[in-house]
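Shift notes (night). Ran Phage holin family protein while the centrifuge was going.
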Amino acid sequence: MDDFSKQVAESVSPFYTAIASFVMAFLMALFRTAKKRGQADWLEAFMCGFFAVGFWSLTTWLGFPEIISVGFASVVGYKGTHFVSKKIDKVSDETNR
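Came back to this:
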């Protein structure tokens, strides 16, 4: 079992920062939606996490230090899904008129 744990740790190690970005953005969105709506929105939290990983990848490619990328990725993930949902709501409201 110890060998398996080592193997998993070695496999996950290169993706540690991406995982951290996803988790931070996911939790921020989960807590925000729970506070705002009284119920956690899991779909929005997952979208937020995926936005964060995408932004983390971009900032890593651009050469930003990884620790800064995690923070920026979380903010972009948080603001990104919020921004997109507002745009979708606006378009659907205009369509329903």
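Residues 15-95 form one domain. The mean pLDDT is 82.
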